[in-house]
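Possible regression after last week's pipeline update?

I re-ran a chain I had predicted before the update to compare outputs. Posting the input and the new output here so someone can diff against the archived version. Not blocking, just want to make sure nothing changed silently.
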Amino acid sequence: MARAVDEEVDPGAPAPNDAPKRDAALSGRTRLALGAMQGLGLGGFYIIVLIYFSVSAPFFFSASNAVNILSNVSVIGIVTLGQAYVLIAGGFDLSVSGTVPLGGVIFTMLINRGTSIPEAWTIAVLAGCAIGLANGLIITRIGINALVTTLGTWSITVGLAYVVTNGETVAFNDLNQGPIDNVVLGMPLYVWTMILITVIAFAVLRFSVYGRMIYAIGGNREASRLAGIRVDLVTTSVYVISAGLSSFAGVMLAQQLLAGAPTVGANAALNSIAAVILGGAALTGGVGGIPGTVVGTLVLGTIANGMALMQVPSFYQQIATGAILLLAVGFGRLRAVFGQLAG
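New output (post-update):
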């Protein structure tokens, strides 16, 4: 009769079922470490920017200038929220540079024709959503690269803005239709509008099933598809959100300027992508968030404000934005390498 022989067991070895738990814990600690590194890096950089301009720029460190910075970033801040959704989902939206001015032009021309403000807002935003829908369908159904698709729609939307205005700035016939600068608790109404949209965007992305699907798709599209996520539908939806918010921002800008122009918002793509990447997103998708995006937007807005107070020409601000974008992408690459080594 065969006798059972007990196998030698290393008392220090983990049980087989503990390995996935250990790997998950390591992955969680790695993500926390990377997030903390990103937050500390961006926060430290912002503090340096604030200290520098407080010393170098006259009247920079004041409550009135803080409100001025928030006012200046309110429009591009709304654009960056939509851009964040697209980038986290693994996409790319250059068409915002055309959607912003087109939204403002549509709104202005509708107002001049006697359309009520709510109706003009609605039509302009729906026009933006239609652009986003076109982007999403071309990318998901036809299979054209997001960069090429949104570059093409950017050219089309800018061209449309020039066509309908004959290349000229269209001012409001009734100047009372424009201002939205009513002050509430010390800040203009459009700043509070940006804050409200930011809170909604954060809550949706952080706490909803839809938000988790966006992160999943950005992390691994094929795995998301196999998990039952309707990848094409969610991908299309983030482009609709991005374009809708961009058109909304264009309307806000038109009401601030009392005019619509095809040249207004031409830098929206560069500035929004730079802000989102600076805030911790990755061009590969699956990474990023609204808080980092907001801080990235504030960093760019603060630098622009400080340079303006120092009377630095605006084209140097473009150079600074491009340099910051390159630094942010480089830092993101280092973070990814660190994550691979730590994981």
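Follow-up from reviewer: compared with the archived run. Residues 1-28 have pLDDT under 50 and may be disordered. Marking as no regression found.
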